[in-house]
Specification:
heterodimer, A: alpha+beta, six-stranded mixed sheet, 13 strands, 41% helix, globular, B: 375 residues, Rossmann fold, OB fold (Dihydrolipoamide Acetyltransferase, E2P), six-stranded antiparallel sheet, 9 helices, P-loop_NTPase (chain B), transport (chain B), OB_MalK-like (chain B), nucleotide-binding (chain B)
């Protein structure tokens, strides 16, 4: 079945213009329909319409898409073929998987988004793909690339702080607690299935792969424990792999880091969900509990308070907790939408600014407007152009504050902002840059676990020559179907 | 010995009135490959997750190797969920990829090597043990992932639609591999799928489940040859069984304007609730073309024919009073048409009316009210 490219423009979306293309644009309240039948023509089910989606070469296996369409960004390890693709002004992550799995994951990601959980944004499912010769191709799940994010392997590819592994684990523990509180069982927790965003001195973790997940009303202890057990095993494995590749600082104990994740998760979980018991004259303990949750970045929407049967003790348990305490506060004051720790840092600077400008009596909203105009915006405008896609403004601001403090300590006196920014751009920022060579190396590594007959069986031979395998994804697979028919692997099982 | 036993197991999800799994009694014998099959939402995955310890059991108990595990944590049950999208680590050798989980568990080095070598032999990966995943083909990579589960040597393997994320070509190949592998290893296995072809080709025994209730357990041929009820009859087999409800007149089934003999002892089993009707089922291969004067044959108007070279298929509607039977009275799929397998050299033309005779020994008779098998 031949697929003709449709000219860019909304009119191109009409099924009448090209009967082989169907577009289903879903409203936000619609969970989308699924049918059991494989669509015969290309069908794009999308949450929003981006006409440029129709100009992509869906009739080609993803591993063979032309280089000029691809964004050279580091990918994580995956069993599937994954590519970052420029679509208009955006970059989308495309994953080639079977239709059922693609549709299921798309719906699940949409539901997680509605719950305001940190996940990638689903864009579309593309089904009914066929090659020019009419051979069916796997479906593609499209998600929006999370700007400024990096897979963990890219973070280790550069010389970073020795505690990087620990900070990633901390971020993952927070993510796990948030997902579990919302009733999401992951079934395949690993660093590879997460993207990390810098968040002041910490990281924030985002779920990118929900293939094995399930959303429940509430999770059983068994589900949570199994998720964490699997997370521990996978993470230790991933760190052992980095260690084999000499990418992990020598003094990191992989098993200890993995165990650390489970401990951190449990302590966070119990802080958020445990019932506390105290006397009627100790009501201040409720406030202490709420403050502690705020410090951890959680808002308490609902507290459950009960008295014991004898009426002598009060039982308190947070019922609904919401992450993003500081980031919501900052958003309300400034309109800046940033990560939790960045927000905390910016709020602290805002407080400092209020005190230093003698505006303590002024409304915080008004001071915030001033601070944005006088402090924040002039600083982030100084981010050199070539770094604008690499560092988030809020992160840049945080790092400038750190750097200024470091310079001041060395000099023994305050350092003007402008001077700190210049020094930071000259000495620190270049370390952020991931060069093309590094990205290519990371992506070749990431592809070495892909289980896909188009890209793997496409080349002649079955991996006996290690050098050939490098070209796995770029190989011409015109012989693909013949190769599998005569697959020597199959013979292994015949006996 | 690791026999798995479900004893009166019930799972009701919070907020639901009806159980997702209702009073399930099921034994999986030591070393057996049991496939749990049913349409989506039938409770098959819930059953597997209860065995894994991921779902609570509201009533009843679950035993693994004679030990009650009903309230035990998943990691203490000595089970392995296979195919969790296992990632392959690029810097680690094939041997390390397979054995690292044992290293974490503190298994001695020599023991790890022994188990990895044994698994590699079964998976035909011995010569690749010291190489990196990059040097492997897709199929070999897939097998390394299987190796990661095998080396744990668990009491039970659990597989929940493990082929769903493979493309069509790899799916058929891996299906054969898993079945062969399980037989070599002899580890008790519970395999969940919605695909009856997977069930028929892989399982030692198949358990069919619908709306949380176990319908029938048996060897593939048993389910195929003697389905216990209308649901199993229609679910197992592809193309599926022809199932129609017909009036019973003078001890004979009336199919359109024709009649077919029914065994007297079966007719005697019909109850007033059956309303003078019977469900007749027959597989497409258990009927054939008959001559115009053949007794016990019925008329079929040919709506479509298919010539597959080795087989031919007729799809048609049953003629009643010279018009096609109301489709609402039919219970099989294939667009509600009756399917007959014939010699492809003797295919009738579309629009023709042909006489069809069912092999009486291969006829499946069910009560319309209880939907249970009568013969």
């Amino acid at each position: 079945m031949e697929f003709t490219k449709v000219p860019v423009g909304i009119s191109g979306m009409s099924a009448r213009t090209n009967p082989q293309i169907k577009a289903i644009v879903q409203g936000s309240g619609d969970d989308g329909g699924q049918s059991d039948e494989e669509p015969r023509s290309l069908t794009i089910t999308a949450a929003s319409s981006n006409p440029k989606m129709f100009t992509l070469p869906w009739e080609q296996p993803l591993s063979q898409w032309p280089q000029e369409l691809l964004a050279n960004l580091p990918r994580g390890i995956s069993r599937h073929v994954v590519r970052f693709v420029h679509v208009g002004d955006e970059v989308y992550a495309m994953k080639e998987i079977t239709r059922g799995v693609a549709e299921r994951e798309y719906e699940l990601l949409r539901r997680l988004q509605k719950l305001d959980l940190p996940t990638v944004t689903p864009i579309a499912v593309v089904t009914g793909r066929h090659s020019k010769s009419g051979e069916p191709l796997e479906s593609i799940l499209v998600t929006r690339h999370l700007k400024f994010s990096l897979p963990y392997r890219a973070l280790f590819a550069r010389n970073l702080r020795p505690d990087t592994a620990q900070r990633l684990i901390d971020a993952l523990a927070v993510l796990m607690v948030r997902l579990h509180l919302a009733g999401f069982y992951w079934g395949d927790v690993s660093l590879s299935n997460v993207l990390f965003l810098r968040d002041a001195d910490e990281f924030s973790a985002f779920l990118v792969d929900a293939e094995t997940g399930d959303l429940h009303a509430a999770l059983t202890d068994g589900q949570r424990e199994y998720d964490m057990d699997l997370a521990r095993t996978n993470i230790i494995g991933e760190l052992m792999d980095l260690s084999s590749g000499k990418l992990l600082p020598g003094d990191v104990d992989e098993v200890e880091v993995g165990n650390g994740l489970v401990d951190r998760y449990h302590s966070l979980w119990s802080t958020l969900t445990d019932t506390e018991k105290f006397g009627p004259d100790e009501m201040w303990k409720i406030e202490r509990r709420v403050n502690k949750l705020n410090e951890l970045g959680f808002d308490v929407d609902e507290l459950e308070m009960k008295t014991t049967e004898d009426g002598n003790r009060i039982l308190v348990r947070p019922r609904v907790v919401d992450a993003g305490y500081a980031s919501r506060k900052l958003l309300r004051l400034t309109g800046l939408d940033v990560q939790e720790n960045q927000a905390r840092r910016l709020l602290n600077d805002l407080d400092a600014y209020r005190a230093s400008t003698w505006q303590d009596d002024e409304d915080l909203e008004i001071v915030a407007t001033d601070w944005m105009r006088v402090v924040f915006e002039p600083t982030v405008r100084m981010i050199p152009h070539e770094y604008r896609s690499q560092i988030e403004p809020a992160q840049f601001f945080h790092e400038i504050l750190e750097h200024r403090w470091f310079l001041a300590e060395k000099a023994g006196h305050d350092i003007p902002m402008r001077e700190a920014v210049k020094s930071y751009i000259d000495t620190v920022l270049p370390k952020y840059k991931l060069n093309t060579e590094d990205v290519d190396k990371l992506n070749a590594e990431a592809d070495s676990g892909v289980v896909d007959d188009e890209s793997t069986y496409g080349f002649d031979g079955y991996g006996s020559d290690a050098d050939d395998a490098d070209d796995t994804d770029d190989s011409d697979d015109s012989e693909g179907s013949d190769a599998i028919d005569s697959d020597p692997d199959a013979a292994v099982w015949a006996s | 010995m690791a026999e798995v036993v479900f004893e009166h197991v019930t799972r009701v999800y919070p907020g639901n009135d009806k159980p997702s799994v209702d009073d399930l009694n099921l034994d999986i014998k030591d070393g057996e490959f049991l496939v749990l099959v049913g349409p989506s939402g039938c409770g098959k995955s819930t059953t597997l997750r209860m065995l894994a310890g991921l779902e609570e059991v509201n009533k009843g108990r679950i035993l693994i190797g004679g030990k009650d595990v009903t309230t035990m944590q998943p990691k203490d049950r000595d089970i392995a969920m296979v195919f969790q999208n296992y990632a392959l680590y690029p810097h680690m050798t094939v041997a390390d990829n397979m054995g690292f989980a044992l290293k974490i568990a503190g298994t001695p080095k020599a023991e790890i090597r022994k188990r990895v070598e044994k698994a590699a032999e079964i998976l035909d990966l011995t010569e690749f043990l010291d190489r990196k995943p990059k040097a492997l083909s897709g199929g070999q990579r897939q097998r390394v992932a299987m190796g990661r589960a095998i080396v744990r040597e668990p009491k039970v393997f659990l597989m929940d639609e493990p082929l769903s994320n493979l493309d069509a070509k790899l799916r058929v190949q891996t299906r054969t591999q898993i079945a062969a592998l399980q037989r070599q290893l002899g580890v008790t296995t519970l395999y969940v799928t919605h695909d009856q072809t997977e069930a028929l080709t892989m399982g030692d025994r198949i358990a069919v489940i619908k709306l949380g209730i176990l319908q029938q357990v048996g060897a593939p041929t048993e389910l195929y040859d003697t389905p216990a009820n209308v649901f199993v009859a229609g679910f197992i087999g592809s193309p599926s069984m022809n199932l129609n409800t017909h009036p019973v007149v003078d001890g004979k089934a009336k199919i359109g304007s024709d009649t077919i003999d029914l065994p007297a002892d079966i007719v005697a089993k019909l109850t007033p609730e059956d309303n003078g009707q019977i469900v007749i089922g027959f597989r497409p291969e258990d009927a054939g073309l008959a001559t115009a004067d053949d007794a016990n044959a019925f008329s079929l108007k040919v709506a479509n024919v298919e010539d597959l070279g080795s087989d031919g298929y007729i799809y048609g509607t049953i003629i009643t009073d010279d018009s096609a039977l109301e489709s609402s009275a039919t219970m099989s799929d294939q667009n509600k048409l009756t399917t007959i397998r014939v010699n492809p050299r003797a295919l009738p033309k579309v629009g023709e009316t042909v006489k069809i005779k069912i092999d009486p020994a291969k006829m499946h008779l069910f009560s319309p009210s209880s939907e249970l098998r009568l013969n």
